[in-house]
Amino acid sequence: MADLQDDEDLPLGTGGAGARAEEQADAQAEQPRPGAPEPAERARALLTEHPVADGHSGLPWALSRLTWYDLELGDTALQTDLPRLREGAVGAMFWSLRLPQAYEGNRAVSATLALIDLAETVVRAHPEGLRLAHTASHTADARAHGRIACLLGPAAATAIDDCLGTLRALHKLGVRSLTMSGTRWAGEAGLSRFGEEVVREMNRLGVLADLSGSSAATVRHTLAVSKAPVLFSRSAAHALTPHPDNVPDDLLAALREGGGLCLVPCTAAQTGPALRDVADHLDHVRRVAGPECVGISGMYDTESALPDGLQDTSRYPQLIAELLDRGWSDTDVSLLTWGNVQRVLREADFTAKAAQIRRAPSTATLDRLDGDGAAP
């Protein structure tokens, strides 16, 4: 019989103490590493590299209702100011130019121009904190210089007053998103012929179509016509909360095919009363539409009731920490906060440059194409 060897005489990896050491190492690898960053710490680190691009801020309209404000020192009348934006790691914001439903025609146009003028005034007054941006490169440059990029839009569709020339003028003033609802050319039955021409001209200019609040037929019709990605600027999952502005799963799947973006709002009515409810909607949209098609809309300063834990723009790190705790990867979080908005802006700009080579500015009018202007 061969002599037995002590464990310590066996080569490592062939049994004995070496095998036990490997088993212990494997067991330790399955346990959380001592000193591994907590979700809150990871969230802060991620947001330093990939800040939040907020898809819908009501700041312009909120400021237009005030006689005095100071975004640098902070204002209790607002949910947004520079200290809270910095605390929340916000790198870019879409400044909504939405109007009350009663605003139509010339009133809608003039009110939108007034909001654009106010936005420019606010940015000029805070040059160390804010910078107007029109493209993905502008937003990246603003971030590189420690500024928060401010993009104008979505504007109300009524702001173009059924005129493509007005659309072009608003684009020159910086508008980069237009809501496709509340008009005669985009209704329950979809887009009219003039509505299709509006989408084509938006593609040529680089103006994103915002489909929040649009009918299912308009969503599908716009997805079929548009060569650029589309947005839902303030829509959550209808499967979880049957709010009229939320998106059903079949349209989220269609959005995935078209490379669009659903920006989930932080509002109690559309997502629920707590931060975890917003996280539930983000989970659902990511699962159905894909991690490349989900983003965040704070909906701050829009008079919407906000979930507990997300009372102002400083609270985004808590939301990101919740997602990390649920198992979101660093890559998916970086897409959610910054990458997806940047992609959509880049693709809209690329589509516009290609379209401008092939297509002159449209001279179409609603009366010529639609007669009475009714959608089909």
From TrEMBL:
Residue span of region Disordered: 1-39
Q: Does the keyword Protease apply?
A: yes
Q: What class of enzyme is it?
A: hydrolase
TM ranges are: none
Q: Which intervals carry biased composition (Acidic residues)?
A: 1-10
Q: Is Hydrolase set as a keyword in this record? A: yes
Give the Enzyme Commission number. 3.4.13.19
- Cite the entry's keywords alphabetically: Dipeptidase, Hydrolase, Protease
Instruction: Read off the SUPFAM superfamilies from this record.
Output: Metallo-dependent hydrolases (SSF51556)
Q: Which organism is it from?
A: Streptomyces solicavernae
Q: Name one GO molecular function term.
A: dipeptidase activity
InterPro entries found in the cross-reference section:
Metal_Hydrolase, Pept_M19
* Protein name listed in UniProt: Dipeptidase
